[in-house]
Amino acid sequence: KGSLHAIVGGNGAGKSTTLKAVCGICRPYRGKVKVLGKPVEKYKSQELFRECLAMLPQDPKSLFVKKTVLEDLQEMTQNEQDIRETAEICQITSLLKSHP
User: Fold this and answer.
1) Cα dihedral angle (20, 22, 24, 25), rounded to 10 degrees?
2) 3-state DSSP call for residue 38?
3) What is the pLDDT of residues 38-67, one digit of tens each?
4) What is the value of pTM for the model shown?
5) Which residues, including other chains, have CB under 8 Å from residue 70's CB and lie 6 or more apart?
6) Using an 8 Å Cβ cutoff, are 40 and 21 in contact?
7) Which helix (H) or strand (E) segment is 22 a member of?
8) CA pseudo-torsion sign 66, 57, 3, 22
9) Where are the domains positioned within the chain?
10) In 3-state terms, what secondary structure has residue 39?
11) Cα angle for residues 52, 24, 82 (degrees, 5° grid)
């Protein structure tokens, strides 16, 4: 818990395909994909993203389409208190009202 991992590689190396398999969007050609010891297909639809995964695209600006950072984050969790507490821990509270 609390670890951060990155998948990096050249064009065509399979980064996107790997992430799609981890997220349950596509099945691997062979082998099995597990997250936290549990097969990916056993997770409910959004459970993986809420509990243990986050993805950052090459163009992070494509993630932000709402009015403020806070509104964008509320798309992922409706608990504004959690958002504010996390922002305070990360010392980015002032950014919540900004427009990305």
Assistant:
1) 0
2) strand
3) 888 888 766 776 666 766 677 766 666 668
4) 0.47
5) 80, 83, 96, 97
6) yes
7) helix 15-22
8) positive
9) 1-55, 59-100
10) strand
11) 25
